[in-house]
Amino acid sequence: MILGIGVDIVDIARFEAALERTPRLRERVFTEAERPLPVHSLAARFAAKEAVAKALGAPRGVGHLEAEVRSGDSGKPEVKVTGKAADIAHGLGVKRWHISLSHDAGVAVAYVIAEG
User: Fold this and answer.
1) Where is the 4'-phosphopantetheinyl transferase domain (predicted)?
2) What is the per-residue pLDDT across 90-109, written as a single tens digit (0 to 9) for each?
3) Domain of 109: which CATH number?
């Protein structure tokens, strides 16, 4: 059963400018494993973090570091939630996450489904 869905879109050039303007943004938003990725991948992951929060009902106090986007063995993106995000997901009965990332024409988009 679908418990929540979330979608977000990010302008890659604008996101890159924000990273350049605010150097510590990378550390505040991305996990250590995510930080070395190219800007288009970071933009897609940022969109995914926002989409995860939306799938959880956009609760206050959930930080960007509490959702990490990884590449699975097959290259398929996977999301891991920790902290308050994991607590909320558990409370909602989320058992599985589905995530799709894309970037083209200067934008990155992420779509997330929380399944129970």
Assistant:
1) 4-94
2) 999 999 999 999 999 999 99
3) 3.90.470.20
